[in-house]
Specification:
about 200 residues; globular
Length: about 200
């Protein structure tokens, strides 16, 4: 009986020791260092996610920026063609006027949107130049290149279907070619990414 009692006490002692060790192990998980380690791990995952999203630019944003430039370019080119044709200018002079007006109206549309944000004229002008110069240049290069290579397009008048058809197709090609350029620039914080800073 004494042996059994001693054995029982020993078993209780063993169970008690095991439970205490287990409790200690559980308590260890709640220590500040361990909790801090868990928080640190979660924070690092969150930081990694944030870093991954930086510089991510969608095609929709690039397309909107390109469409903005395209609008100014189209206004300038059509107006330049109309003026050049009305004045009886040659092809090169008319094209030069159209390009100048395309840059003018492209900058003007951007300048107008920035000024609405309350920015002073000097700053707005610098932002417009930085945002649109490369985009308009690429667009005009592609646009006028298509018209120059299109048989008979340079000699077409405003009353010819060829004139308007060539102009529409050349602008569409320019839009497709310029959109990746704007995407690349916005992704690096340039181009219309600078303009967007003044809209928030």
């Amino acid at each position: 009986m004494q042996h059994d009692t001693h054995h029982g006490q020993h078993g209780q002692h063993g169970r008690h020791g095991h439970d205490a060790d287990h409790a200690a192990h559980v308590d260890h998980s709640t220590q500040p260092d361990h909790a801090g380690h868990s928080v640190h791990t979660d924070h690092s995952n969150h930081a990694g996610h944030s870093t991954h999203s930086v510089g991510k630019v969608g095609w929709a944003m690039a397309a909107r920026a390109t469409l903005h430039c395209l609008t100014g370019c189209a206004i300038g080119e059509i107006l330049g063609m109309v003026i050049g044709t009305a004045l009886g200018w040659g092809n090169m002079a008319t094209m030069a006027l159209a390009i100048v007006l395309a840059f003018f109206f492209g900058y003007t549309l951007t300048l107008r949107s920035i000024l609405k944000a309350g920015v002073d004229f000097g700053t707005a002008l610098r932002v417009a130049f930085a945002a649109d110069t490369l985009s308009i240049a690429v667009m005009e290069l592609i646009d006028n290149g298509v018209i120059a290579l299109w048989p008979g397009a340079m000699d077409a008048t405003l009353a010819d279907t060829l004139f308007w058809g060539a102009l529409a197709i050349s602008l569409a090609v320019a839009f497709v070619a310029t959109t990746p350029v704007n995407k690349w620039m916005i992704g690096r914080g340039k181009g219309h990414a600078v303009v967007h800073q003044y809209h928030h």
